[in-house]
Amino acid sequence: MMKTNYHTHTIRCQHAMGRDEDFVRAALDAGFDVLGFADHAPWPFRNGYVSPIRMPMEDFSGYVQSIQELKKQYTGRLDIRLGLESEYFPRYRDHMLRMREAGISYFILGAHYNDSEEENPYIGPECQTDEGVLRYAENAVRAMRTGLFRYIAHPDLFMRHRRPNEFNHACEQAADMICQAANEMRMPIEYNLAGLDTQLRGFSRGYPSQPFWAYAKKHDNTVILGVDAHEPALLADLSLWETGRRNVETLGYRLIDHLDLEE
Known about the structure:
The protein is of the alpha/beta class. The chain is about 40% helix and about 15% strand.
C-alpha cells in the first residue's frame, strides 16, 4: 500500500503552522509517497466579510506558486499535488471553477458552513440539534452531487459537539444520506487522522466517531485516510497513520491509497 495524504494545510489558513517546505520534509521523513496540499479555499465574499479561518484571496496566487515550485523541486522524491479543502457555496460556483483553471487539481469537500460562510455560523453548534444534523447532511449531499469534489473530509463532522451516546436516529439518517451519495458519486469518505490524534491524546473533536463508522459500514464505502495536517508534526508521526490504517481495516472498510488526478 502506498502512503499518501491529500489533506495538508498551510499557514495561510490562519490556524496552521509551519512553512510549506516543512510539511514536504516531514512527509519525506515519514515515508509518504504522495503529499497533497489542500488548504482552506479562499472566497471573494460579496459583502466584504473576511474569514478568520481560511486563506485570504490575496494569498491564493502565492499558494499556487509555492506548491508548484515545491512540486518541481521534489520531483522524483515525493509526488506533490495542489488542491483545496472547500465548502460548496452555490452563489460562488464560478469562483471555484476559476480556481480550478488557475491550477487547482482537486477539491476536498469540507462542509464546515452551510450556504455561505458570511451569513451562516459554523455548523458544529447547530448540529447539536437534529434539524442541524439533517441540514448539514443535505448541504453535504448537494455539494457531493456537483461532481466538483474528489472526496468528503470528516463526513462525521456533525458529531463535533455531540457525545457518542448522542448518535441518534437523525445521525443515522445523516450517515445514510452522506454514505449513499458518496457511493453514487464514486467518492471515498475520509477517516480523519487529526481527529484521531486528539482522541489518542485524551480528548476528542467528536470525530472520527465510532458510532458513525460502525453504523455506516452497511454502505460499504471506500475510505481514504486524511491527516488533515495543520502542522508538520502530524505528518511526521509515524504511528498515527498506521493506527488509522489499522482502525479502518478492523472496521472492515475498503481502504484506498491514492486518487487518480490529472496533471
